[in-house]
Design a protein that fits this description.
429 residues, 77% helix, globular
Length: 429
C-alpha cells in the first residue's frame, strides 16, 4: 500500500533517456530501481520470518517474546513514520535509500558474528529488529516517492503496479524463502545471506543514472506543520481515507497472523521450517497471479469496481484458513491464504494507482509516510496481541479470531456506497 503522482509539466522523454513508448522493462534506471526493490523487499520479508525463527531455534524464545520481536521491528513506523515523510520531501531520495540499506545490512550481519562467538542474546535481537525497522521506514517512503524520477509520466500506473506486485509477492515469498534458508543453513547463517541482500540493493540503486529533481527548500516550515499537511491530504480525500482505514485494519490482523502462523505451524502442527517455507511460497503464487492480472483488470473494470469486487471475492477465501491442519488439511491454508493474497494484490494496485493520480507530487513523501504510519503502525499492535492471545486461548482459537478480523476491512469496502461507481481519477499536476 503506497502512493505517488505524475508531474507531466516538468518531465519529458529526454529526461529518462528514451521515448515514453519504450517498455518499462527496457528502461535501464527502472530495471535497477525494481531490482533493488525486489532484493530489499524480499530481504525485509525474509527477516520477518528468519529473525523470529532465529530467536525460536537459537535462543528458545517463547511465543510472547516472538510476538514482541515482530512488534519491535514495526515500531519504527509508529515513532518515525510521520516525520520521515517530511524529511524525504526535503532531501535527496536516492541517498536515503542507500543509507537505509547499508544500515539494515550491517545490523543483520551482527547476528551471525555474535552467534559465531557464542555471544548472541535476545537483547541484541531486539536491537537489530529496531534498526531494521528504522531502515525500512526510511527506505520504503523514499523508494515510493522516488518512482517519478525513473519512469515517464504515462508509465507511472504500470510502475506503481510493479512496486505493489513486488511487495505482495515478497510479503509471502520472502518468509517462505526465509523458512527454507533457516532449514538449509540455520537461522543465524540465513540472516547472513539476508544482510548481504541489503548491500546488493544499495549497489543497484547506485547504478541509477536519472537526475533527481532538486528538493524544494524555499519554504522550510515547522515539522509538525508539514506533518499536518500530509495528514490533511489523506483525511480530506474520501477514497484515500477509506483505503487508509482498510489498510490499518488489514495490517493489524496481519501483524497478529505473522505472530500466530509460525507458532501454529511449527509448534502445534509439528512441521519443519522448510515445509513452512514451502507452504508460504505456495501462498505467494496467489499474490503473483494477482500481480499479473491487476493492471489488466483495472484497465477493463475501472478502479472503483476493481476495489469492490476484490474485497467481496476475498471474503470466502478468508473463511478457509482456520480449517488448516496436519496432512491434507494444509490445503486449506494454502488455498485460503493464496486466494486472499490474489485479491488483496489486485485491490492494492487499484487503490495505489488512484492515489498516484490525485495527489500532488510535492506531498508524496508526507502522504506515503502518513499511509505507512497508519497501516504499518497497526502491525506491532497486532503482533503483540497475537502472541498474547496464543498464551491465553491457544493457537487454533487465535487463528479463528484473526480470520474473523480479516473480514472487517473487506466489508468496509463492500458496504461503502459509491465505491463501484467511483469516477476514474485525473492527474493532480
Amino acid at each position: 500500500m503506497t502512493d505517488r503522482n505524475t508531474q507531466t509539466a516538468d518531465v519529458g522523454p529526454d529526461e529518462f533517456g528514451e521515448s515514453e513508448s519504450v517498455s518499462l522493462w527496457r528502461n535501464h534506471d527502472f530495471l535497477h530501481f525494481m531490482s533493488a526493490d525486489v532484493v530489499s523487499q524480499i530481504g525485509t520479508q525474509v527477516t520477518l520470518i528468519a529473525l523470529p525463527l532465529a530467536a525460536l531455534v537459537a535462543l528458545d524464545a517463547d511465543p510472547f517474546q516472538i510476538g514482541l520481536l515482530n512488534a519491535v521491528e514495526m515500531m519504527a513506523f509508529v515513532f518515525f513514520g510521520l516525520p520521515v515523510g517530511v524529511w524525504v520531501d526535503r532531501m535527496w531520495r536516492r541517498p536515503i535509500q542507500v543509507v537505509a540499506d547499508v544500515l539494515r545490512g550491517a545490523a543483520l550481519l551482527s547476528i551471525p558474528i555474535a552467534w559465531a562467538f557464542d555471544a548472541l542474546t535476545l537483547t541484541q535481537m531486539f536491537c537489530v529488529a529496531a534498526a531494521i525497522g528504522v531502515g525500512t521506514v526510511f527506505f520504503d517512503v523514499a523508494h515510493m516517492s522516488y518512482l517519478p524520477t525513473v519512469v515517464p509520466p504515462r508509465e507511472v500506473t504500470r510502475g506503481a503496479g510493479a512496486l505493489e506486485s513486488v511487495y505482495q509477492v515478497a510479503k509471502l515469498g520472502g518468509p517462505g524463502l526465509g523458512g527454507l534458508l533457516v532449514q538449509a543453513l540455520g537461522a543465524p547463517v540465513a540472516l547472513l545471506v539476508d544482510g548481504v541482500s541489503y548491500l546488493v540493493s544499495a549497489l543497484l540503486l547506485g547504478r541509477i543514472r536519472a537526475p533527481e529533481q532538486r528538493p524544494e527548500v524555499t519554504e522550510r516550515r515547522r515539522l509538525r506543520v508539514e506533518i499536518a499537511e500530509g495528514l490533511r491530504c489523506v483525511a480530506g480525500n474520501r477514497v484515500i481515507r477509506l483505503t487508509a482505514v482498510n489498510g490499518a485494519l488489514t495490517m493489524l490482523f496481519f501483524g497478529a497472523w505473522s505472530a500466530i502462523s509460525v507458532v501454529f505451524m511449527i509448534r502445534e502442527l509439528g512441521i519443519s521450517p522448510g515445509t513452512y517455507g514451502l507452504l508460504l511460497l505456495g501462498v505467494a503464487a496467489g499474490g503473483s497471479l494477482g500481480a499479473m492480472l491487476a493492471a489488466r483488470v483495472i484497465g477493463r473494470t475501472g478502479t472503483g469496481r476493481t476495489m469492490w469486487w476484490a474485497s467481496l471475492l476475498s471474503l470466502p477465501a478468508i473463511g478457509l484458513i482456520p480449517f488448516s491442519g496436519a496432512g491434507w488439511a494444509m490445503a486449506f491454508f494454502v488455498l485460503g491464504a493464496g486466494v486472499f493474497e490474489l485479491f488483496s494484490c489486485v485491490f492494492n494496485v487499484a487503490q495505489f494507482s488512484y492515489r498516484l493520480k490525485v495527489l500532488p507530487q510535492h506531498l508524496h513523501g508526507r502522504v506515503n509516510a502518513t499511509m505507512r504510519f497508519l497501516m504499518w503502525g497497526a502491525t506491532p499492535i497486532g503482533a503483540v496481541l497475537g502472541g498474547a492471545l496464543i498464551e491465553v486461548i491457544g493457537a487454533r482459537q487465535t487463528l479463528w479470531l484473526v480470520a474473523i478480523g480479516f473480514t472487517l476491512p473487506q466489508l468496509l469496502i463492500v458496504l461503502t456506497p459509491g465505491i463501484r461507481t467511483l469516477p476514474e481519477p485525473a492527474s493532480a499536476d
